[in-house]
């Protein structure tokens, strides 16, 4: 496309692209934007290496004029968007990219990869957080998604309200609290469960979490308290019929004098099984597959569309495709969240054309993310990740209570064009 | 775990871990192993950098003895496994890792991340390939998965029988044929659809593929043939009611004398919609979201389990956990595929203990992948990827016809322990 646009003289036309989702996947009531901070860093360093350019040349993918253009590539445009952690609805213009056609269109795959994956994880994770009713959740799903997606998933889950991750790289790169756990292999490595527990307590202290379902849960809980004493930090249960098992283990621990020993469960949990454990004496959850795969909706369905461009005379033209079922709304958009007097969200209002000054009952949703090629520093790195987590908490607090119903339904507030 | 095992003197115990799946996701009849070649490269270069070690030290994740051990880490053990591209069934021992406990357990997350994601994509892609009945498929889903998972997905889909990918990095890194396409934004960038088509044909020649559903398909097909002539390579349809639309466009192209112009469709396809287009005059498919997200099963459900280890006296002990619903089968395994006289697969037979010499009707399934730390060169890089694609074709050709039914069902052959 860039090759052909350079030849036809249209590659430099000032253009506005928009990222949005036509619908929320899985009959969810709201989505959570994640990936923005990661994306800003990736756009800031988006370059073509000599090795890449040589390959493109050897394979005749583009001509020499385009190769030169790629060699000099550096995004110099501007981007506005929903702050990371913001909630969103169908049609919400999550990212607004302004630049020449060529410099903006080339970011499509990168922007969508990052936002679709990270937002899918965050949107699922936020439902698990509300299902957990304040009990902490740890993300433990690195092994169930691609090795670099695993790091992104840990970050997205943390933004959505998870407390920690087992992914150490996510801890190092994004400042996310990390936690570890012992696997069944650690118990099986030793000559007996007792040897394994003694080895773990010797290394980690009695505050550690012992895995009690390798052989027989009741016997293992007795052994755990015998070895670590009533100061035992927690026991982990990774199999079995959870609500009954958890209650039985709680009674057993209390009977052994280990009233402060916590119970953590980790058996293929998702938002529904977490909600089903609300009445059980669980202290924390470890979640794997379901959170890193978006709990049934592994891609958020976001698209990257041209919505306006200048013509040869420099006038802005709104553009939209009219494909059946996939029509787009042209033109630059200025979204606000309409709030009731008590501060509850009532509608997503998307102003077309000139920006409306938001009144007290309307919260503007676009913030500058990249200004003339420079990513906004406050959204980057570990600080940006922490900011996104705080923003998510505030944005979710505005939602009406029906937002937290787990069953399939419509978005909890309507999207209205104004 | 490594920290505690070093202290308890068990970290060096020779151990055997196994990767397997308890079941096939989504009621599928068979799975396709992918990711092995990628994994061998990643294990070969698995090291801890100074920056990583410093972080682990500062965060007190492990003690100094373990830090030293990590600083020297290099996998020196051996790995056997199913050749990449092989089909698999519940219980198939896909990877057998032999090394000290510590050097093997540390690979768990990496091995599972790579194999779970890549095999999920390949298993879905193989069904799309059979549903397409010989028509070529292009992988176009980079934007619907994490940015590095996208490269892995392109590779896995190619191994499973896709013909090409739109991911240029996958072309460069793994030697996969690449293809491109024009988006709606390219049409909307120009002052008219005619200008856009002329620009594309000028840059790419009449053999290009023109996207005809930005405004009105019938008008666009007329325009496309007017501009490119009957040598027009193809038209792409990305929306609408596909079977009827495709038939109408075929009649229109034939009526315009463009009998050789092909039709490619790309509208949210999966194995079911591809099968539904069997009677329509489609020439090729572009598949995005469904293939890179495993078409409903985004993780293959593989686990990494200790199955044997030596005791303090150096004797091998088979180990297994007995958790409810998650019990494992201990001991080293030697799997073979049992074949009928005509060469059709009839069972997955997993020999426990000493290897059985496979007779003419039994194909041994384990091949050496890493020998004392050295990955087998023939499985690496672009050559390894091509080899995996060829092996997949041969392995799938052995399956009985019922393997290609798309409905939910049991594995097409039983798994038997012997």
Please give a quick description of this structure.
The structure is a homodimer of 418-residue chains. Helices cover 36% and strands 20% of the residues of chain A.
Which features characterize this protein?
homodimer; alpha/beta; nicotinate phosphoribosyltransferase; TIM Barrel; 6-stranded parallel sheet; 15 helices
Spatial strand order of the main sheet of chain A:
13-12-1-5-3-17-18
The CATH class of the largest domain in chain A turns out to be Alpha Beta
Average pLDDT number of chain A: 95
Q: Flag low-confidence runs of chain A.
A: none
Tally the beta strands of chain A: 19
Query: How many individual domains of chain A?
Result: 2
**Quaternary organization:** homodimer
Overall shape of chain A: elongated
Helix content of chain A: 25-40%
Most residues in contact: chain pair: A-B, 89 and 88 residues
> What composes the largest sheet of chain A?
7 strands, antiparallel
Instruction: Name the structural class of chain A.
Output: alpha/beta
Family (chains A, B): Belongs to the NAPRTase family.
Protein name (chains A, B): Nicotinate phosphoribosyltransferase
GO cellular component, one term (chains A, B): cytosol
EC number (chains A, B): 6.3.4.21
